[in-house]
Amino acid sequence: MKVILSDDHRAHFPDGEVYEGSFVRPFECPERWDHVVAALDAAGFVDRYEPQPLALDRVVRIHDPAYVEFLRTFWEDWTAAGHTGDAIPTMFPVRGLRNDRVPVEPDGRLGYFALAAETAITAGTWQAASAAAAIAQTGQRLVAGGSPVAFGLCRPPGHHASSDQFGGYCFLNNAAIAAEGFLVDGADRVAVLDIDFHHGNGTQSIFWERADVLFTSLHGHPADAFPYFLGYEDETGAGPGGGHTANYPMRPGIGFDAWGTALGDACRRILAHRPDALVVSLGVDTFEGDPISFFRLAATDYLEVGRRIGALGLPTLYVMEGGYAVAEIGTNTVNVLSGHLEA
Predict the structure, then answer these.
(1) Which of 76, 126, 159, 300 has CA 20 to 30 A from 239's CA?
(2) pLDDT at 28
């Protein structure tokens, strides 16, 4: 198992986030990375790689160039306007407002490109987000080059980032960038399996009209869980992408039996798609002890998750998404990877 990681993630750590009416310490924190690395060390996952330089020409195949430029330069504009704290969006182009004009003033521009108010931009956001995307690209190249499986320890995560919006702790969509990379490098079809607790709204929207990428997602029902406004079963794609999106929303309290049934169906859809490569958005916030989810998977269940994905027999890249039970994130992540190798 090749592992790609970078210390650049530490550059991004906001002072806090808005959660249930309070300003709290961010759940998406650097310690998550530390615990995963410690578990990788303990399990003997020592084949480590630093990411290659970010290929921006591939990033803009997924993300609007104006959005990428916003992420790259916004902190300079924010501080030039006299702001000293983290940039937290507070105004959005919601129903009844125009979204065809990008404001010049930094607060307006921030809201234009934002999905939600819990995600702040800091002085080091671009450094960390671009490194996470570079990790995904490097892992993709390793798998495309013949490695059967790799793990990109991406932080910040990416699956909530759409072509031109950040939110849900995400800025660049690492999984989508990797999937597109496989296609650029010669794959005819790719599948994305999102097993994070939260729906991968960004990935779904990016590939909504694409037939060459199958998107499948197992997640908390949007009636109950972030991001609330996408992730229903009747969302199946549009145009050439019709039938190439499959959502498995599930209600509070479900354990591995029901969740595993959904995984089995998703795996059958993946095999029917006949992909040349598989990208797994690996979130372990489905864990029973996670502070911001409501599924009930146990630590040992993640071994079986990995076995089932490994049994697909596909060249596979795992990219890290969520998981906020910090003390257990390492064990749960490594269990998935270990199960994959057992398959």
Answers:
(1) 159
(2) 99
Instruction: Determine, yes or no, domain membership for 82.
Output: no
In a domain, 108, yes or no: no
Using DSSP's 3-state secondary structure scheme, residue 125 falls into: helix
Taken in order 119, 120, 122, 125, the sign of the CA dihedral is positive
| Interval 148-176: pLDDT, tens | 999 999 999 999 999 999 999 999 999 99
Domain ranges, residue 294: 2-63+123-342
- Distance in Å from the first CA to the final CA of the chain: 13
- What is the distance, to the nearest Å, from the Cα of residue 131 to the centroid of all Cα atoms in its chain? 14
Rounded CA-CA distance 36/289 in Å is 16
35 catalytic residue (yes or no): no
CB 282 within 8 A of CB 320: yes
Query: From CA 298, how far away is CA 174, in angstroms rounded?
Result: 26
Q: Across the chain, what does the average pLDDT equal?
A: 98
307 confidence band (pLDDT: 50, 70, 90):
very high
Catalytic residue, from 35, 63, 160, 198: name it. 160
Question: What domain count does the chain have?
Answer: 1
Question: Does residue 333 lie within any of the structural domains?
Answer: yes
Query: Looking at the domain assignment, is residue 331 inside a domain?
Result: yes
Question: pTM (2 decimals)?
Answer: 0.98
CATH of residue 170: 3.40.800.20
Q: Residue 87: which of 101, 100, 102, 105 has the closest Cα?
A: 105
Please tell me the distance from the alpha carbon of residue 161 to that of residue 248, in angstroms, as a whole number. Answer: 20
Q: Classify residue 214 by its DSSP letter.
A: E
